[in-house]
Design brief:
This protein is an alpha+beta fold. Helix content is 43%, strand content 17%. The protein has two domains: 76 residues, 2-Layer Sandwich (Phosphorylase Kinase, domain 1); 192 residues, Aminoglycoside phosphotransferase (APH), C-terminal lobe (Aminoglycoside 3'-phosphotransferase, Chain: A, domain 2, Alpha-Beta Complex), CATH 3.90.1200.10. The strands form four sheets. The protein has a five-stranded antiparallel beta sheet. Strand 4 and strand 5 form a beta hairpin. The protein is globular. Belongs to the fructosamine kinase family.
Length: 280
């Protein structure tokens, strides 16, 4: 039997009949009762546990797929029936994100309950080490580890790295008003937003942790999002952002951009250097 069928049956308690691969690691599996679930093969040890914990934590604040079960190799969740992005759904996404962030976290860098300290953002390792000062934590735990890795693997040279380091040196004075740790999705690019057939937005594939709420919003802007201004309007209707937040977007994008440099190499170096030069 196909391993994905066996895993889906084990975690749902229902015989599985069909498999439709969506990628090298993700497949839709049809169950005997007519439901469809998503079966995902874990990319690394602890990845399925981290994702399951993140989904359950985020589910306290907004729509995410139900987690049926996981082990060291597999994660099984509900499938979100696809719909389309509308201005109304985007506005609702913004309002829901504001509510999610307000659910809070024990500290910057706090892992979800049951989630591992050694987690992931995409295929990159991400260490959840708590801190109480956002700028210091963000620099040390969310930017510099990936900058060091990028230099070590030859994706960035010393001059390019120095530009990012100078930007980090300016972050403490650019962070804006002190805010409590927010409950972040952590990898909130448009591909991790599903526009459901129910007219609502759903979140998948989190790298959930405690952080600054502007980081989620900055990442949503990084690679484009349908009806982005409606998302932001919905957010601010619930939880207005601190003055100057648009000038801080680049600072919050350093983290995901450095992750992309580590994972995908040189094509993101020029972008991260340009953003770093604009910080401050």
């Amino acid at each position: 039997m196909d391993a994905r069928l066996a895993v889906a049956a084990r975690f749902t308690g229902t015989p599985a009949r069909t498999v439709r691969p969506l990628s090298g690691v993700v497949a839709e599996v049809g169950l005997a009762d007519g439901r469809t679930v998503i079966v995902k093969h874990a990319d690394a040890p602890g990845a399925a546990r981290a994702e399951a914990a993140g989904l359950r934590w985020l589910g306290e604040g907004m729509r995410v797929p139900v987690v049926h079960g996981y082990d060291e190799q597999w994660l099984v969740t509900d499938r979100v029936p696809p719909g389309r992005a509308t201005a109304e759904a985007a506005y609702g996404l913004g309002r829901a994100l504001a509510g999610l962030h307000a659910c809070g976290a024990p500290a910057y860098g706090a892992a979800p309950p049951g989630g591992p300290r050694e987690a992931y953002i995409g295929l990159a390792a991400m260490r959840n080490v708590p801190g109480d000062d956002w700028a210091a934590w963000y620099i040390e735990r969310r930017v510099l580890p990936y900058l060091r890795a990028a230099v070590d693997q030859g994706s960035m040279d010393a001059g390019q790295a120095a530009v990012v380091e100078r930007a980090c040196g300016r972050l403490a004075t650019l962070a804006g008003p002190v805010e409590p740790p927010a409950r972040l999705h952590g990898d909130l690019w448009n591909g991790n937003v599903l526009w459901g057939a129910d007219g609502h937005a759903w979140l998948i594939d989190p790298a959930a942790h405690g952080g600054h709420r502007e980081t989620d919003l900055a990442m949503l802007q990084l690679f484009g999002c349908p009806h982005l201004e409606r998302v932001l309007a919905g957010y601010e209707s619930v939880a207005p952002l601190a003055e100057g937040w648009r000038e801080r977007v680049g600072a919050h994008q350093l983290f995901p951009l450095m992750v992309h440099v580590v994972l995908f190499g040189g094509r993101y170096v020029e972008q991260v250097v340009g953003v770093a030069r604009g910080v401050g």
